[in-house]
Amino acid sequence: MTDIAHDPIAFAQALIARPSITPVDAGALNLLENTLKKLGFRTKRYPFEDVDNLYAVIGDDGPNLCYAGHTDVVPVGDEAAWSVDPFRAEIRNGKMIGRGVVDMKGSIAAFVAAVASYLDAYGAPKGRISFLITGDEEGPAINGTKKLLPAITEDGETLTHCIVGEPTSEDTLGDVVKNGRRGSLNGVVRAIGKQGHAAYPEKAANPVPVLLDYLFAIKGPLDSGAEGFQPTNLEVTSIDVANPAHNVIPAEAAAKFNIRFNTNHTGDQLKSWLSEQAVSHATDAIRLDLDLRVTGEAFYTTPCSFTDKLINAVKAETGETPRMTTGGGTSDARFIKDYCPVAELGLKNETAHKVDEYSDIGEIETLSRIYHRLLVSYFKN
């Protein structure tokens, strides 16, 4: 029987069989920890409230190449709509179907197998290989990587470079390496006026025009882009008045918006600007209240020898040179960037979070070979 650590397909199936829907672990971290221990890793669990986390490392002195990821998955949705049991990881026509195979248990299995084959061929690295794994990436992301990083730092661990196994690939495996992410700000603005009869507007204070003027003022464009980034984008995602009557001026109107911002801005700067605009558009009769939440700051990893090694590993296995981008949503890389340079590479994201989420098993195996080449190149000297 093949050792599960060396077989990314078998290990991915075993991980998927643990229904670790955030924040439930369901034994996924135990499986990973025990497998890494057999490879010689030192491990430590870091539970924070209802979330469990794992840090594992092999090697002593020298650079630390860290693999970061998560074992938690999103709910399956309508289970009756799946063609298979979402947690059986059934293989059909060369495709593994199961919740989390793409995002991102297949990637974790690929890196474990890459490490196992590396240790077989080269022995202990001239440095350290580590795993930083959380059970809270798909959830609030409060008790996972954000708390795990300072905890391992306090324990004396330092990271030199990090690869995050999020599903970054789009049309073909390895066609995209993310070396940054846009920041994200969610906002709610409420215009508070005075209700009244539409025939007597002088006796009311209509909040709707003030709200619309505010939204027009902040809609952008906010900039023309930054190195590695597209222009900052603001999207109004809803406008709500909740007024069924034609002849009533409402007392309140509200809107929701999201800003995906580049490195020209920080979350605090945008919050200040939005607040200043709210003050300037308010009137004596109508006030604007804001509820602003930054879910991630923009960051950019300047292309360097680390990203070169990653790109070369992809090219060697696929024959194609990946493009580096900063698009898409947020990931736990937004926390890791404060500790070391970080890049992201994983499976194709087309079916992530969908019914019948799947990955070609050949692509899981290819991803493992890419990771193996990265390890060889990283520790070569």
Description:
The structure is a single chain. The chain is of the alpha+beta class. It contains nine helices and 19 strands. A six-stranded mixed beta sheet has the order 1-2-6-3-7-18, sandwiched between helices. Strands 12-14-10-15 form a four-stranded antiparallel beta sheet. A three-stranded antiparallel beta sheet has the order 4-5-19. Helix 5 (207-218) runs antiparallel to helix 6.
Give a summary of the structure in a few sentences.
The chain is of the alpha+beta class.
What does the secondary structure layout of this molecule look like, with pairings?
Elements: H1 8-16, H2 28-38, E1 42-45, E2 53-58, E3 64-70, E4 90-92, E5 95-97, H3 101-122, E6 128-134, H4 145-154, E7 161-164, E8 176-178, E9 180-181, E10 183-192, E11 196-197, H5 207-218, E12 233-240, E13 248-249, E14 252-261, H6 267-281, E15 287-296, E16 299-300, H7 305-318, E17 323-325, H8 333-336, E18 342-344, E19 358-360, H9 361-378
Number of DSSP helices? 9
Terminal residue distance? 35 Å
Order of helices and strands: HHEEEEEHEHEEEEEHEEEHEEHEHEEH
Low-confidence stretches: none
Helix content: 25-40%
- Structural class call reads alpha+beta
What is the radius of gyration computed over CA atoms, rounded to a whole number of angstroms? 24 Å
Strand content: 15-25%
Tell me the total number of β-strands.
19
Main beta sheet strand tally, sense and closure: 6 strands, mixed
What sort of overall outline do the alpha carbons produce when their principal axes are compared?
A: elongated
Largest sheet, order of strands side by side? 1-2-6-3-7-18
Average pLDDT over all residues: 96
